């Protein structure tokens, strides 16, 4: 691991997909649950103005950039890293690992449509993964008991959470000590297969969000330089 990248006051692990995968395999050999999240530009923008979300992200064991714009925003131009993020190399490596080892997985989503899309994707591309269960988690509902009981009753290796921020981070922060799994992988809603093929409007919204993110990073950098010069 090559240390951390500081983005909008949030530390992101600076590592290749292979290094992240090596750490993940180590986590899969432990009893206590380890938390991994692929963060997006939207999550970082939200966290920059939400101390609670920022605090929850700080508690995550492995924070991986989910969009190349995150690295570009802080002038990381290492071609290999950018390509790996764009090609979702780490996620593919992890899913292949779960497939090869016939691992038992529990899916957390927000809608029936998302559940069907994720299930179909794993069945078609990674049929060795045993989907032991899935549950819908409402961002507005903090009644976690049913979900936690379902996860623990399924005797799984890994939870894959495809939820919105900050709900995804809040759920694992509340329930980390209660879940019987080796790894929690938070991929966010954008990694759900039904959202991967974005329409023109979604691409325009994404482009605007990335521009706003770049502006926010620049503003934050100027503020840090001004603070440093005052001291």
From TrEMBL:
Organism: Faecalicatena fissicatena
Lineage of source species: Bacteria, Bacillati, Bacillota, Clostridia, Lachnospirales
Alphabetical keyword list: Glycosyltransferase, Transferase
InterPro entries, per the entry: WecG_TagA_CpsF
Protein name (database record): WecB/TagA/CpsF family glycosyltransferase
